[in-house]
Amino acid sequence: MANRRLRKELLETARGLYDLDAIDGKTMRELESLRVEAPKAYTAYEIKRLRLREKASQAVFAAYLNTSVSTVQKWEVGDKKPSGPALKLLDLVERRGLNVLDADLTPKRVTSEARPNAARKPARDALRGPRAR
To answer: What is d(CA 10, CA 36) in angstroms, rounded to the nearest whole number?
Structure first.
């Protein structure tokens, strides 16, 4: 809430400076482009429609949004309303689809083919540690 008020005050000050020719049009455009709009508020119907459009179960949808299944259920019946990061993620899913949140975060194994100069050791020796050799 305070950040929104601060941004509003900063933009009003910049407009005043622009009117006094203290800053140029380019600077004013840059300041206005930095303005972040508040995310759209979603109704229970819109959240359920969005989930169904993405063909996701409540459990899958909750996993993508990093929330619990009961929270998604409460959103869809109107007992709770999403806020903060959840609103941003819902907006992102609405604009670009659920796949935009599908990041493969599992670490990749580097194979010896990817590192041609790496010494090849038997797997059991690598697991034993330095003292077992």
So the answer is: 13
